[in-house]
Write a structure and sequence with these properties.
The complex is a heterotrimer of chains A (765), B (290) and C (94). Chain A is α+β, with helices and mostly antiparallel strands. Chain A has 18 helices and 31 strands. In chain A, α8 packs parallel to α9, α9 (360-378) packs parallel to α17 (732-744) and α10 (382-389) packs antiparallel against α11 (409-418). Chain A is globular and about 75 Å long. Chain B is built from 13 helices and 13 strands. Chain B has helices spanning 9-18, 31-36, 52-55, 72-77, 84-91, 96-101, 104-110, 118-123, 141-144, 215-227, 230-233, 239-252, 263-289; strands at 2-4, 23-25, 44-47, 57-60, 63-67, 127-132, 135-140, 145-147, 150-151, 158-165, 171-176, 187-194, 199-205. Chain C is 31% helix and 32% strand. Chain C is built from two helices and four strands. The two termini of chain C are 21 Å apart. The chains are: A alpha+beta (765), B alpha+beta (290), C alpha+beta (94). Chains in contact: A-B, A-C. Chain A binds chain B through residues 122, 272-274, 433, 436-444, 446, 635-638, 640, 675-676, 680, 687-688, 690, 692-693, 695, 697-701, 754-756, 759, 761-764, and chain B through 33, 36-38, 88, 91-92, 172-184, 186, 257, 259-262, 264-265, 268-269, 272-273, 276, 280.
Chain lengths: 765, 290, 94
């Protein structure tokens, strides 16, 4: 079906392109929104999880005899009580629902309790006796590769390896720069802890109200481990307090359902903040060795990279992260010769998996540092060298895929460079809040130097590498109380990003109706795929749009039947019109009819990489460039980001305010990784499982953001749009670090950058 | 868990004597965290919020008696002019919500070396008023804090107040954190000039098992000021002396590596902070003359 | 984004030792684990269970090798459950 150009549509109030407000905005601000942790039904029990205190141990026995007799305790379950498959996992089912003879990370689930009070449940956990034999942990990816490393899984410690070979492996160049870069383990740090409520539905199955990113992948895994057919496990999305990738893997889903089915009572589980750090996967720590070769005038000749990722104890989505990193390792540049090795290892660290940026974040930090290094060595401007090497539509990525239109790398770099820099002011005597350290009063201007840094990054939108990625939407149109009302049902998870508005906006635009109800997502309808990979506006948006189009066609059929009109039918302002003249009010055309259409939208097929790492692996690419201005107290190593400017191509703006929110939020997360966010691990143990010591940026750390948006329509995508959620997180981090380097003349090869790095004190690894 | 809520000072002391295991609570910003993290499960909690002697502060003969239950917010708004160093430190504590609830007595009770209120108390030789049914005793703050998270309280005693002279000279507080708000000190420094007693008080926070008075550094800089007659002339302190002061403060620190920072960085940073805060305080002292 | 790199095929093998054997004997299970482990596709899936995940042909070949190893070591029964993840209707071509 041919897509009519957008500007020829009648403008629908609160349709696409408008800053439609969040329906849940006011309740959230007032504390009235019901998150999954607020769920309650009378008579419910509280579930709790016994976790391994050791990063690596054998379990000789689990003794629950003392617990079972406690008053108020209704169930104590171990691996023996898992009715179905005893392992789960999205890519490879390798993670025990409950450990049986081995634990492979600190915090691994070992046993469950259900009690009539959360405190009773916690006390009951203390009575479970687990006889552990503590084993030496494998504490990083390099150690895991060693010949004599303990084998953590039957087939050893290599979880995945992806090689990309492109051009001449022996290419040489006039100018060579090398670097080793390291990224610490970032956490999604969503504010709503893992939580949900499982209610037995009386026919042997269970209803689960849950915070998740993908209802159907949860349903499939839960059903498998419960030994039930999927239709016996019905999931309904509950209020989600942020996700960022951290809710893709299961946490308490199977556990709560097991306890509910075992006790025949509703069971609620809510992780505490500390437990949450053990209850979800994190961003992969990475060590990356790079070599870039270029001509004397700055044209890239080759890139060689060795990427080493710590996958932690279980697979999660590490396979895909490993592949993503390999395909994005060279950055959005024209690289004629590339040799990339991407390694993913099992260790006894917490499992790592999806987080905003998904493999593109780590390599962007490294390739952008390399581009700056190259520019410096050549005496070139850091933006010039990027523009000189920018990829363009029609070129090939090193993984063999043709660069599709649009790929405006040069344009976004030009845009950020052209934005006026914030005025440089005398540092002495400023308001403390405008200085590094803020009101902590560490400088009155002494030692403060400014730096400016640029970076550009890109990310695949949607699922890749041959995965059949689709979404299902049902749109119904009928008259309620005399007015036409559209209802939209999908299983797509609203996790705070604003999909509820987007779905309604699309329905308003396509159906010309004011009243749109977006129903609570659940598994009554087919999968919508995951709320991740910046894909929902594209994929679920397209499903909703197509369903609306089908509904609209049926409205026109009705109009033709009833009124005999056939030319240029459209719905505008609640009327069916023919060539601009009103035929009849939509409500009259509909009468008592309910028109309902369900659509499954599958995006264009992608393909796996071949053994040389070549293939049309990705659906869509989104690009963003960032410029960071920082001020650094060079003597104390404290930094303040003064401003971040960004240019991003989004194809088509669906909701300007929500877009701004995604961009600012993404930059905040990128700033966090640059300056403070790291789960610190010592010998396999998390040292900072709290928001006291896992620091995320506050409003006083977050600078003003200048945004320029490009709307270059992707001819394949609905409305020409591109996913927007991840690109802001990718290049913002390297831009900030580049600015720190500019201010301090230090290498800063590891993120997050700590004050001791900036002042150049010796740091333990 | 028992919740004890006496109405006045006599009753509160009797209750504490009868329930020495009871954990005192005022703002709850430390106690509730311990409970939530399941680090502590006290049999009883003793609420102090109803006791006026703990809640209020008073001023007499240029000395202040500040109830242990005075919050950081009140230290900023009510005591900012009299105890500027304490007010500056209070501004760096947590978020507005935490400052509204958290109390200076809580910092003394928790005795964390990172307690922001402690260096200003050390730098002005505060005394801690400790009470029990057996009577009231006054303990210098430096003796009150005995180690990381330990203090000189006996089981039947409560911290009721601290006594501190009002500022007669400039005071400063500076704190290092990896973000610009809501952060626990990586290290900090409190400094107070006492022109009337011709003394310089300094205290290192969060770079040792307790806050640390760098006595050698204090003695050194007092000597330089005397030698050059700077209390009277209000001339600049020579840059070399400021450097040396910073170096001596850094030497006095006893930092460790931990999740918030490395020992070497802490030592370096307290030296820088010492030099800077002394410079700022002395500049203010010089301006005050004009 | 999650695992779009889903294994094409997975197979779960459960080894039951011969009833005559000493109940504590884990030789059949150990033999199966060794054989499966060599393939690069194997993870544990329960006290006596092995999960193979990967490409269709490699998984099926490893199933054969693993079953043989278990039988040779005295196993009486090996339960095998093969699932084609890619074709699962919830994610696949539905």
């Amino acid at each position: 079906m041919t897509q009519a150009p957008i500007r020829e549509r009648a403008v629908t109030p609160d349709g696409i392109g408008e800053s439609v407000g969040r329906p849940d905005g006011v309740p959230k601000v007032k504390g009235e929104f019901e998150y999954s942790s607020d769920l309650h039904v009378d008579g419910m029990l509280w579930g709790a999880t016994l976790r391994s205190p050791h990063p690596h141990a054998s379990i000789h026995s689990i003794d629950t005899s003392e617990t079972g007799t406690m008053t108020g305790v209704f169930a104590v379950l171990t691996h023996e009580d898992v009715p179905g498959r005893k392992v789960y996992g999205m890519e490879i089912p390798d993670q025990p629902v409950l450990a049986w003879e081995k634990v492979r990370y600190q915090g691994e689930a070992v046993a469950l309790v259900a009690a009539d009070h959360p405190e009773t449940a916690r006390r009951a956990l203390e009575k479970i006796r687990v006889d552990y034999e503590v084993l030496d942990p494998v504490t990083d990816a390099e150690a895991a590769m060693a010949e004599d490393a303990p084998r953590l899984h039957l087939s050893g410690n290599v979880l995945r390896r992806v090689d990309v070979g492109h051009g001449d492996p022996g290419a040489t160049a006039e100018v060579v720069v090398e670097g080793e870069y390291e990224v610490g383990m970032q956490d999604q740090a969503f504010l709503g802890p893992e939580s949900g409520l499982a209610i037995p539905h009386g026919e042997g199955g269970v209803d689960l109200y849950i915070s998740t990113q993908w209802l159907h992948v949860d349903q499939d895994q839960v059903a498998e481990s419960l030994g039930l057919p999927p239709e016996m496990v019905r999931l309904t999305l509950s209020g989600v307090g942020g996700a960022f990738g951290g809710r893709e893997d299961l946490s308490m889903q199977i556990h709560a359902c097991m306890l509910a089915l075992h006790t025949s009572r509703p069971v609620k589980m809510v992780y505490g903040r500390e437990e949450s750090f053990y209850g979800h996967v994190h961003r992969h720590p990475a060590k990356m060795r790079y070599e870039h070769g270029a001509t004397r005038d700055g044209q890239l000749v080759y890139v060689r990279a060795n990427l080493l990722f710590d996958g932690g104890a279980y697979a999660s989505s590490s396979n895909a992260v490993c592949l993503n990193a390999a395909t994005f390792a060279c950055g959005p540049y024209d690289v004629p010769n590339a040799q990339i090795e991407s390694h993913m290892l099992y260790t006894n660290n917490p499992p790592c998996g999806a987080m905003r940026g998904f493999g593109a974040v780590q390599v962007c930090f490294a390739h952008e540092a390399q581009m700056d290094k190259l520019a410096e060595k050549l005496g070139m401007d850091s933006v010039e060298i990027r523009m000189k090497n920018a990829i363009e539509p029609g070129m090939k990525f090193p993984f063999g895929q043709e660069v599709p239109y649009p790929a405006p790398v040069r344009e976004i770099l030009e845009r950020v460079r052209a934005m006026p820099l914030p005025q440089e002011r005398e540092s002495m005597g400023r308001d403390l809040r405008e200085l590094p350290g803020g009101v902590s009063n560490t400088t009155h201007g002494e030692g403060v130097r400014r730096g400016v840094g640029y970076a550009v990054g890109f990310k695949n939108i949607g699922f890749s590498a041959g995965f059949d990625d689709y979404s299902t939407a049902r749109v119904s149109l009928s008259v309620e109380d005399g007015k036409p009302v559209a209802r939209v049902l999908t299983a797509a998870a609203e996790v705070g990003q604003g999909l509820v508005m987007v779905q309604a906006q699309i329905a308003r635009t396509e159906l010309g109706v004011e009243n749109v109800v977006v129903e609570t997502a659940d598994t009554r309808i087919g999968s919508a795929g995951s709320t991740s990979a910046s894909r929902q506006t594209y994929v679920t948006g397209a499903a909703v749009k197509e369903a609306c189009e089908k509904v609209r066609e049926r409205v026109f059929d009705l109009a033709r039947e009833e009124f005999g009109e056939s030319d240029g039918l459209a719905i505008e302002d609640g009327n069916v019109v023919s060539d601009g003249l009103v035929v009849a009010p939509l409500a009259e055309v509909l009468g008592d009819a309910e028109i309902s259409e369900t659509v499954e939208f599958h995006h264009r097929a992608t393909h796996p990489l071949d053994e040389n790492g070549q293939g049309d692996a990705h659906l869509q690419f989104a690009f963003a460039a960032h410029r960071a201005v920082v001020e650094v107290d060079t003597e104390l190593g404290l930094a303040r980001v003064v401003e971040v400017a960004t240019a991003q191509d989004v194809g088509k703006i669906i909701n300007p305010l929500a877009l701004e929110g995604q961009i600012e939020g993404g930059i905040a997360q990128g700033l966090g990784l640059a300056l403070m966010e790291e789960i610190q691990i010592d010998d396999g143990r998390i040292q900072n499982a709290s928001f006291t010591d896992y620091l995320i940026p506050t409003i006083l750390d977050m600078p003003p953001v200048k945004i320029e948006i490009l709307e270059l329509a992707d001819p394949e995508a609905p409305y020409g749009l591109k996913g927007v959620g991840e690109p802001p997180t990718i290049a913002s981090t390297p831009a900030i670090v580049a600015a720190l380097r500019d201010a301090t003349d230090r290498d800063l090869a590891r993120i997050p950058v700590r004050p001791e790095h900036i002042v150049g004190l010796e740091v333990k690894p | 868990m028992e919740f004890l809520q006496p109405a006045d000072l006599r009753e509160v002391l009797e209750t504490k004597a009868a329930h020495p295991e009871a954990v005192p609570i005022f703002g709850g910003t430390d106690v509730m965290v311990d409970l939530n993290f399941d680090r502590e499960r006290p049999g009883a909690v003793l609420d102090l919020t109803r006791v006026p002697e703990i809640r209020e502060w008073s001023r007499k003969d240029r000395r202040l008696r500040v109830g242990a239950g005075v919050t950081y917010t009140r230290a900023i708004t009510e005591l900012g002019g009299l105890l500027p160093g304490l007010a500056m430190a209070s501004r760096t504590v947590g978020s507005p919500q935490i400052r509204n609830r958290g109390t200076i007595g809580g910092n003394l009770g928790s005795a964390s070396p990172a307690g922001d209120a402690l260096p200003p108390l050390y730098a002005s030789d505060a005394g801690i008023e400790v009470a029990s049914v057996r009577g009231v005793r006054m303990v210098p703050v430096e003796e009150f804090i005995t180690g990381p998270r330990t203090n000189a309280l006996r089981p039947d005693e409560l911290i009721t107040a601290f006594m501190i002279p009002e500022a007669r000279g400039p005071q400063q507080y500076a704190k290092i954190g990896p973000r610009n708000a809501m952060v626990i000190a990586v290290c900090s420094l409190g400094l107070a000039l006492h022109p009337e007693s011709r003394a310089v008080g300094a205290c290192i926070g969060s770079a040792g098992p307790t806050p640390i008075r760098p006595h050698e550094a204090e003695g050194f800089i007092e000597g330089v000021i005397e030698e050059h007659g700077l209390w009277e002339s209000r001339s600049e302190i020579p840059a070399s002396a400021l450097e040396r002061f910073g170096a001596l403060v850094a030497e006095a620190a006893k930092p460790i590596d931990d999740v918030r920072g490395t020992a070497s960085y802490r030592r370096h940073a307290v030296g820088v902070l010492a030099r800077r805060t002394l410079t700022w305080a002395w500049d203010e002292y010089r301006r005050d003359a004009g | 984004m999650p695992g779009y790199e889903r294994a094409e095929l997975s197979a779960e093998l459960k080894v039951t030792p011969s009833p005559e054997a000493d109940k504590s004997s884990r030789e059949p299970s150990e033999a199966a684990r060794r054989a499966a482990g060599e393939s690069g596709l194997a993870r544990e899936a329960g006290p006596e269970s092995i999960m193979l995940a990967g490409g269709r042909r490699e998984v099926l070949e490893t199933v054969t090798k693993t079953v043989e190893a278990a039988l040779d070591a005295g196993a009486r029964t090996v339960e095998v459950r093969v699932e084609a993840e890619g074709d699962a209707p919830r994610f696949g071509n539905g």
